[in-house]
Specification:
7-stranded parallel sheet; HCF244-like; 11 helices; photosystem ii; NmrA-like; about 15% strand; NAD(P)-bd_dom_sf; Rossmann fold; two-stranded parallel ribbon; about 350 residues; 11 strands; plastid
């Protein structure tokens, strides 16, 4: 059975608790702080003088790097709503970067967990809620993850909480493991035959713009989309990585028709439903959809100069330059320490 999400949750919003001790506006809780975006949000917040608390699931390997940076780590789990309220005591703003793990059902964290978090935030008088969503999520109700994001947007808007919704297109950081590293290691990279274009953005820029929006009262209760300066196809990204690495890539192309067939087959078995849900998202990424938007109005609202936004060329150039320099230095050190008998 396909995943069905009801945007208007039957659970009623709790009434705000009576006012207690005022909390500092600089007190924030980052949910999903160990993720690609979350850790950049944490670092930027600390750099700007915020008191940062990070909600982290209990785990065998503690998130010590967050403590080392100066954040407070509190244990909680969106899939266990009873663990949420204690993490919100003394918090002014929630910044929600969380998403479910690949091995989890999409609905558990991304819908049920978010509904519980929003309800707790309302009940405990949280002053502002920042939610990261996906660009074009309202245009793909057939894709469970995108439909859940859209439903969460609507649920947050209906909650009465002061909020900012930020839709994202793609992270530049994700391209390192997907393309840059395999090309350097002369391993195969995977692509599709679809003309999908994605305007990737550096997560450091996303974090910087997020705090500009957080400080700007004109942005309250608005929906923004953050996109990079240019939208790229998979093949264009691979070609750029090849040029910067100075070597050709071994590309394995997966036809979109195979993704569609795989999704249909996995729907036949209950235990593979979540796989099918995620393949549905892959199918959208492999279509002719453009994940980009004009940023002129957003730049104007935030007072940002487009020239200050990192381009994909610059980001990958810096990465490859640093990696190739390190490899060259390691090779030189290796020659210096060679001993011949």
């Amino acid at each position: 059975m396909p995943l069905v999400v009801t945007c208007n949750s039957q659970a009623a919003f709790a009434t705000n608790m009576a006012p207690g001790t005022p909390v500092r506006p600089t007190s924030i809780l980052v949910v999903g702080a160990t993720g690609t975006l979350g850790r950049q949000i944490v670092r930027k917040a600390l750099d700007e003088g915020y008191d940062v608390r990070c909600l982290v699931r209990p785990r065998p390997a503690p998130a010590d790097f967050l403590r080392d940076w100066g954040a407070i780590v509190v244990n909680g789990d969106l899939s266990k709503p009873e663990t949420i309220p204690a993490t919100l005591v003394g918090v002014h703003t929630i910044i929600d970067c969380a998403t479910g793990r690949p091995e989890e059902p999409i609905r558990t964290v991304d819908w049920e967990g978010k509904v519980a978090l929003i309800q707790c935030a309302k009940a405990m008088g949280i002053q502002k809620y920042v939610f990261f969503s996906i660009h074009n999520c309202d245009k793909h109700p057939e894709v469970p993850l995108m439909e859940i994001k859209h439903c969460t947007e609507k649920y947050l808007q209906d909650s009465g909480l002061k909020h900012i919704i930020i839709r994202l297109c793609g992270f530049m950081q994700g391209l390192i493991g997907q393309y840059a590293v395999p090309i350097l290691e002369q391993k195969s990279v995977w692509g599709t035959d679809a003309p999908t274009r994605i305007a990737y953005m550096d997560t450091q820029d996303i974090a910087r713009l997020t705090f500009m929006a957080l400080r700007n009262e004109k942005i309250d209760n608005k929906l923004l989309t953050f996109a990079g300066p240019r939208a790229w196809t998979t093949q264009e990204v691979i070609t750029l990585c090849e040029r910067l690495a100075g070597q050709d890539a071994s590309v394995t192309t997966v036809p979109v028709s195979i993704l569609k067939l795989t999704r249909q087959l996995t729907r036949l078995f209950q235990w593979t439903n979540d796989v099918a849900d995620r393949l549905a998202f892959s199918e959208v990424l492999s279509s002719d959809t453009v994940f980009s938007t004009a940023m002129g109005e957003t730049y104007g609202l935030l007072g940002v100069d487009q020239k200050d936004i990192v381009t994909l060329e610059t980001y990958l150039q810096d990465y490859f330059s640093n990696i190739l320099k390190k490899l060259k230095d390691l090779k030189a050190q290796s020659k210096q320490t060679d001993i011949f008998f």
